[in-house]
Amino acid sequence: MTGSRSRWLLVAAALGVSLIAATGVSQAAATKGAASFPSTCSKPIGSGKLTIVTDLPLEGSLRTLSVEIQQAAALVLKQAGGKAGKFTVQLVNCDDATAQAGSWDSAVCTSNAKGYARNSSIVGLLGTFNSGCAVIEMPITNRAPGGGIAMVSPANTYVGLTHTSPVPGEPDKYFPSGKRNYARVAVPDNYQGAADALFAQSKGWKKIYVLNDGETYGAGIAGNFVNAAKSLGITILGNDKWDKAAPNYQALYQKIQGTSPDAVFLGGIISNNGGQLIKDKVAVLGDNNKVALMGPDGFNTTDTVKDAAAAAEGMYVTIGGSSPNDLKNAAGKAFLTAFKKTYKVKTLQAYTGYGAEAMQVLMAAIAKSNGTRASVVKSLYNLTVPNSILGPAKIDKFGDPVYGDSAQSQVTIQNISAGNINTVTVEKPTAALALKAAG
Q: Structure pTM?
């Protein structure tokens, strides 16, 4: 199940032999005495000697997007016949969020990662979604017995996870063993921030007020946008943190109103009270045609439309790389068709294709390995992915994606119109601008 947190019981038999509920861990793993999965995890999909877990927020406004990533991973596994090379693989879905937080939770991220480390069958982790959860889980999985657990995120975009940043110690502090075990298939935020700034310039927005949610991703993408925008001659009127627990933001926008912005940029995620933030922007500053509103991929979900209702109309949102609904390569089109048929949907969420891509990467790394954790991690880098859903793809030596000849440069700009999220254009910032965005 993906809708609620799973609770599985150990039932003691009369002879004192513990039986492990089938929904908590596979019988094969139980027989071998492997540790069970965290209580946030659901029943395994398929059966196999090796396990890939997904670690995604299944509570709050990112649930819809996370469920589709899980479905994409399951579809890739099914199409591969449950095998990666000579190894049989099962998929276990886990939740890193709480209903109280309505988003990822630091305590759950910690507990999950420790549980994964204890279960020797787990050689791959598809996650996390949120960069703030990633910085918690990465050092734990890096030190997992047997050489670490290979992590491949479908959606982490914070620059400091793989490259140096203004934050001291990044990224080395996430790899205490001295060896990397993390990769992502999403485009890093310095490219997205640069692309967002290029689009703002093309729209003639000369004065922009920036808000951020204070989290690793939100503060990071806001900073990347600010750096790139300034280098393009755009005036940044402010970069303030919004309080996700606030009942409303009208006083904040009344302050912003006095600066006469052409646009407002929201660095953060929809689940941090983003719906209210958007509603109050429109209530105070006017609709999004009067004062433009733009958000990065943290707002690129149909839950933005649901939470903000009519106030989301006209808002621009972005995604690093391609929208899964725009895929034109053979493997991408085949996946799009199969996903729509299997799960009965008309359009895919922004990161569904990246969920499939992350699963492909993990399966390819496992197929290339000898089945041990250390070997899967080693196989992850400089890995070419055959028949990639997102086009010709490779994971470089840092753990970042390289798509075709364009590296990580393509970013898709979309617009919310009549409740739909439609592609407007594609921006391809130069490496030089992305470097300025990174700070």
A: 0.88
